[in-house]
Amino acid sequence: MTDSADDAAVTGRRIAALAFPALGVLAAEPIYLLFDLAIVGRLGALNLAGLAIGGLILSVVSAQLTFLSYGTTARSARFYGAGNRVAAVGEGVQATWLAFGMGAVIVTVVQVCAVPLVSAIAGNSSGGDIAEAAMPWVRIAIFGVPAILISAAGNGWMRGVQDTMRPLRYVLVGFGVSAVLCPLLVYGWLGLPRLELAGSAIANLVGQWLAAVLFCRALLVEKVPLRLDTSVLRAQVVMGRDLMVRTLAFQACFVSAAAVAARFGAAAVAAHQVVLQLWNFLALVLDSLAIAAQSLVGAALGAGRTAHAKSVAWRVTVFSTIAAAALATVFAVGASVLPSLFTDDRSVLAAIGVPWWFMVAQLPIAGIVFALDGVLLGAGDAAFMRTATLASALIGFLPLIWLSLAFGWGLLGIWSGLSTFMVLRLVFVGWRAFSGRWLVPGTA
To answer: Which family, according to UniProt (predicted)?
Structure first.
């Protein structure tokens, strides 16, 4: 075997070693949320609706601040590649301070605005009963936001130093404790008080803060300076601004798609939601490879090894495309069977075929796009990613979605918009990757 082949084999193993634990971290939350839904669902529709409203508020708030994870990985990985572990972990320290500060602000704002916020989302459904059910959950669960953000920052710097096993353990411990506490507190088992929906919020809170404490402990073990560094904070905020705008573009697209689908009836919106949730899960699977790309590309550029960064980008893209093609094959072959696992409603099953085949067709494209997203994020190319995502949304996704409403195109128009969005992103990130403009060595 040649040196080049040896290097390729080592790189492949390293990608797998980073990607599989990262997939566990990404999958842990949606799996726990399904468990939480199953526990609360036995309290009745009203409590389940309250959990849905509260969970939406918490997820939207948290999703806007994912830069604490992805941005920190990019910056930390460069220092790690340059052999400066102290500076790499230092990025985690500053991101954790930022998480504390932003989390405290969010808790304060949501507590002050909880009544109008929940009422606006729940509307007048069931005479305001849903808003009333959701309110205690929101007021308790929102105190978990700083912990969620601290864990995001912890995931960020640990991925940067190519350690994805400890974050997996921390997250599993946190969700494991929540999973044990949830039924005990909701139903009042083992002599504990029956708290119903509020018990779900407390169980979430305990698990989130346990994971956050473990991430903070990991920083203390590193024995790096813990003081605030405003220059690093400013740099993180600038990258975070670009990534937040990118996330807003995603949310605008998917909220618009759901709103338009709802105008075509219950069957259409249900079919759309089933396939969209599947799409989101498959995106998490592919995103684990993108996380490996972030860590390895950032480290390679930090070490000044631009040729190795290109090699990693190529290999991750190939692996991701193969994985996406395999998933597309599974869902294509199972198209006549798999939808019935999610619903037995004939009207929904009749409508689900359109988005299902769009999802199958998009998966190989997504495999390339998500991999290159990881490469460019690892290179710290956040400004380009922001612009590319906004342009793809404004040119491709949103016009087709709203034209679908105007001309009655239904799910065909909505998912044509999603497909156009993905193709445009492929064009943008593909051009950027081939241009080599992201290959900027050093730690800056």
So the answer is: Belongs to the multi antimicrobial extrusion (MATE) (TC 2.A.66.1) family.
Sequence-distant (6+) residues with CB within 8 A of 166 are 158, 218
How much of the chain is helix, strand and coil, in % rounded to 5? 85, 0, 15
Whether 27 contacts 284, CB under 8 Å: yes
258: confidence class by pLDDT, cuts 50, 70, 90: confident
Residue 443, SS3 per DSSP: coil
The answer to whether residues 391 and 308 touch, using CB atoms and an 8 Å cutoff, is no
Nearest CA among 427, 325, 423, 421 for reference residue 367: 325
Quick one: tokens of 177? 């404790």
- Residue by residue, DSSP assigns 409-424 as -HHHHHHHHHHHHHHH
Closest CA to 88 of 16, 159, 148, 141: 159
Neighbours of 435 (CB within 10 A): 9
3-state secondary structure of 425: helix
Count other C-beta atoms under 10 Å from residue 29's C-beta: 16
Q: What is the pLDDT of residues 41-60, one digit of tens each?
A: 788 777 877 787 787 778 77
Q: Closest Cα partner for 370 from 420, 329, 430?
A: 430
Cβ atoms of 169 and 155 closer than 8 Å: no
Cβ atoms of residues 79 and 88 within 8 Å:
yes
- The DSSP string of 261-327 is HHTT-HHHHHHHHHHHHHHHHHHHHHHHHHHHHHHHHHHHHHTT-HHHHHHHHHHHHHHHHHHHHHH
Q: pLDDT (tens digit, 9 = 90+) per residue, 80-112?
A: 999 999 999 999 999 999 999 999 999 999 999
Length of the chain: 444
Interior/surface letters 202-237, b for 16+ CB within 10 angstroms, e for the rest = bbbbbbbbbbbbbbbebbeebeeeeeeeeebbebbe
Can you give the pTM of this predicted structure?
Answer: 0.84
Instruction: Tell me which residue of 45, 4, 26 sits closest to 287, measured CA to CA.
Output: 26
The lowest-confidence range among 43-52, 84-93, 228-237, 411-420 is: 43-52
* Whole-number Cα distances in Å, 418 to 125, 249, 272, 355, 404: 30, 13, 12, 10, 12
Say whether pLDDT at 394 is over 80. yes
What's the mean pLDDT when you consider all of the chain?
Answer: 87
